[in-house]
């Protein structure tokens, strides 16, 4: 069996399992049941199979109104623990019984709804029409007023054996996901700590990636890191809201953030995705290659600008959550869909960035399908679907992180190439291409610096060297041999000069040696005579051996002056005087 068939079989099995879970949840929801029984031997009881609902259609209902309309409560037709998006408040009723154990002493339970974004929950425990306990829960209510200062919506219960009704009135601008559980206190605290740690790790990873990208942007000023930071910050904001950590620690009792953070996080993340992909996938060197201008970055930047406008409009509450949800459903996949042809092309070329982007696309599509289907009440709200958005976003961001690493590697290689090119160009500007000695420009800079430090106790000698009868060498043996001779002359001068002295080529067969830090003129003369002796031995070239003489004229600074042109002119005059006097000699200016 081929690997493709194995993969297809596994994918179909996963789909069947998901459908079976949904069907099982629907069957459980439709199963006849009368009352949930809280047994002390079981630490956690799920309440959804016993839930019935009543929607407030025209006017708000009081608890008494809801109790009077118990006959109108119906079993939800949605999947397990989710009612989809409901613009109207909804009442839920859970009849339950506390079994007697060790007499009639009260038992301690916790009613917990672990979906933090629910806005307002009025919870009542009644018996025979009387309200025994009540609590005001929800993310748009003061955190300090919660009966338990937990991330989720929890209400402690102390109940004697008997029959009770749990009545819940729920309002939420987003999805009504209601995983209602009755838990023993120890089980509640264990679950709370575990969930808090998991959510903390998720939020911490987003925060680490955000800080990393900002630090890289500050250090390198590469805008790609800033775009990545924008992408991560949107997902970070959404994770804070969905996990309840935001309401618990970040914007406690700042209800504007609680109402708007879902929209803000989504729009910022989509805008960051537009900008990030527009940068990563822009065509490189289009102008140099004669290709038409690349409009892809402009399209992606326009998408990010549209998100920015929508974000400002949303902050002023100029459209509602339902419209925002529709906008996000349309805009969310758009940057990846627009980029799909480009990163498919990169995959075809074996580019790692294309593979990582396809991976990010797969994570995003999977997450959006699961989350959207759960929010609409088509998939059960369980540990997998409720965490799918956060884990999917983390995997999505991590795939983009791999893209960023690959792009950063490309930028570093491009930077190293540019630096090498710059060094080559600088070398060409300051070095003689034939002999690799410093050229006239480099010599002028070195002489200017050396003349500043010249003094009677710290002399500078400038030797101008001209080969004797070099024209005859070119005429007799050709310019190729002449160039070989110049290279050998440069090597011999470089090898024979003192350590720290500068040997340069002015052009043609003229060379200059700078000897700095001399004690007296006698030392300058000794160095000049030493340079003459370097040419006593013949030069062995590829096809010929020849003896070449030289004439040296030199000037000593600061007596000769402190101007580069003046000192060189004096040394040049001394050299010509030496040639007129018979060549092959040392002549001082």
Explain what you see.
There is one protein chain. The protein has 589 residues and is an alpha+beta fold. The chain is built from 16 helices and 19 strands. The chain has helices at 3-30, 63-68, 185-220, 223-243, 245-250, 255-280, 296-315, 321-331, 334-348, 352-375, 383-430, 440-452, 470-477, 479-496, 521-533, 564-580; strands at 36-38, 44-46, 52-55, 82-85, 90-98, 107-113, 120-127, 130-137, 153-159, 162-171, 175-177, 180-183, 459-467, 502-507, 510-518, 539-540, 545-546, 550-557, 586-588. Strands 1, 3, 5, 7, 8 and 10 form a 6-stranded mixed β-sheet that branches. Strand 18 (550-557), helix 16 (564-580) and strand 19 (586-588) form a beta-alpha-beta unit. The longest helix has 48 residues, at 383-430. The N and C termini lie far apart (93 Å).
- Please state the overall shape, judged from the principal axes of the Cα atoms: rod-shaped
User: Stretches where pLDDT falls below 50 for ≥5 residues?
Assistant: 1-32
| Number of beta strands | 19
Distance between the first and last residues' Cα: 93 Å
Task: Supply database-style keywords.
19 strands, six-stranded mixed sheet, five-stranded mixed sheet, 16 helices, disordered N terminus, 589 residues
Summarize the SSE layout with pairings.
Blueprint: H1 3-30, E1 36-38, E2 44-46, E3 52-55, H2 63-68, E4 82-85, E5 90-98, E6 107-113, E7 120-127, E8 130-137, E9 153-159, E10 162-171, E11 175-177, E12 180-183, H3 185-220, H4 223-243, H5 245-250, H6 255-280, H7 296-315, H8 321-331, H9 334-348, H10 352-375, H11 383-430, H12 440-452, E13 459-467, H13 470-477, H14 479-496, E14 502-507, E15 510-518, H15 521-533, E16 539-540, E17 545-546, E18 550-557, H16 564-580, E19 586-588
């Amino acid at each position: 069996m081929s690997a493709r068939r194995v993969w297809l079989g596994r994918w179909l099995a996963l789909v069947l399992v998901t459908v079976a879970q949904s069907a099982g949840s629907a069957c459980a929801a439709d199963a006849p049941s009368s009352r949930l029984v809280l047994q002390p031997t079981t630490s956690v009881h799920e309440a959804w199979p016993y839930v019935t609902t009543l929607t407030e259609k025209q006017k708000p209902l009081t608890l008494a109104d809801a109790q009077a309309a118990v006959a109108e409560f119906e079993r939800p037709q949605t999947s397990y623990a989710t009612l989809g998006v409901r613009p109207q408040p909804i009442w839920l009723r859970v009849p339950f019984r506390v079994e007697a154990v060790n007499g009639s002493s009260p038992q301690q339970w916790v009613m917990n709804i672990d979906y933090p974004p629910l806005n307002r929950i009025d919870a009542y425990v009644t018996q025979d029409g009387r309200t025994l306990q009540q609590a005001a829960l929800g993310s748009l209510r003061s955190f300090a007023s919660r009966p338990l200062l937990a991330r989720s919506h929890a209400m402690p219960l102390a109940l004697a054996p008997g029959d009770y009704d749990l009545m819940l009135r729920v309002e939420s601008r987003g999805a009504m996901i209601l995983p209602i559980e009755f838990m023993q206190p120890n089980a509640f605290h264990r679950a709370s700590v575990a969930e808090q740690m998991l959510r903390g790790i998720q939020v911490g990873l987003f925060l680490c990636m955000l800080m990393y990208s900002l630090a890289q942007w500050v250090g390198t000023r590469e805008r790609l890191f800033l775009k990545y930071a924008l992408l991560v910050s949107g997902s970070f904001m959404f994770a804070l809201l969905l996990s309840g950590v935001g309401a618990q620690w970040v914007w406690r009792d700042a209800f504007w953030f609680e109402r708007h953070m879902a929209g803000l996080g989504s729009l910022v993340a989509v805008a960051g995705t537009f900008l990030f992909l527009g940068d990563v996938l822009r065509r490189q060197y289009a102008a140099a290659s004669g290709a038409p201008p690349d409009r892809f970055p402009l399209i992606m930047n326009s998408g990010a600008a549209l998100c920015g406008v929508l974000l400002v409009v949303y902050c002023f509450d100029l459209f509602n959550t339902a419209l925002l949800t529709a906008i996000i459903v349309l805009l969310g996949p758009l940057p990846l869909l627009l980029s799909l042809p480009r990163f498919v092309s990169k995959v075809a070329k074996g580019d790692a960035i294309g593979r990582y982007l396809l991976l990010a696309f797969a994570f995003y599509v999977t997450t959006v399908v699961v989350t959207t289907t759960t929010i609409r009440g088509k998939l059960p709200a369980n540990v997998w679907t409720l965490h799918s958005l956060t884990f999917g976003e983390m995997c999505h961001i991590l795939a983009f992180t791999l893209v960023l690493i690959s792009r950063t590697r490309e930028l570093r290689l491009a930077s190293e190439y540019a630096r090498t090119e710059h060094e080559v160009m600088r070398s060409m500007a300051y070095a003689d291409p034939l002999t690799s000695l410093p050229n006239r420009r480099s010599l002028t800079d070195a002489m200017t610096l050396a003349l500043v430090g010249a003094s009677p106790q710290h002399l500078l000698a400038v030797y101008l060297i001209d080969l004797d009868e070099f024209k005859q060498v070119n005429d007799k043996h050709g310019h190729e041999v002449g160039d070989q001779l110049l290279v050998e002359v440069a090597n011999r001068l470089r090898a024979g000069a003192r350590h720290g002295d500068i040997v340069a080529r002015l052009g043609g067969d003229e060379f200059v040696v700078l000897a700095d830090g001399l004690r007296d003129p006698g030392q300058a003369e000794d160095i000049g005579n030493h340079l003459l002796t370097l040419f006593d031995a013949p030069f062995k070239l590829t096809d010929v051996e020849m003896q070449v003489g030289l004439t040296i004229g030199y000037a000593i600074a600061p007596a000769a002056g402190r101007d580069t042109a003046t000192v060189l002119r004096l040394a040049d005059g001394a050299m010509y005087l030496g040639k007129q006097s018979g060549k092959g000699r040392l002549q001082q200016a």
